[in-house]
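Input sequence (64 aa), recorded before submission:
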Amino acid sequence: MIEKQAAALTQLLKELNFEVLDAADGQEGLAKLNSSTGWDLVLVDWNMPIMDGLTLLKKIREKD
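Predicted structure, token format:
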């Protein structure tokens, strides 16, 4: 169910001409964020494998 909701949100954002980077887990998400520039918004699932959402947000904040 959650995967379908995420896919629907991704599709909607793409239709609105947003560039979307999606990841299967927090570690992959962090790697994608680190390799891209100019992102304005990060939507995070709190319960992700490997690295949860709270840990991901803490690591993002450490960068700035």
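Checked by second reader. The mean pLDDT is 89.
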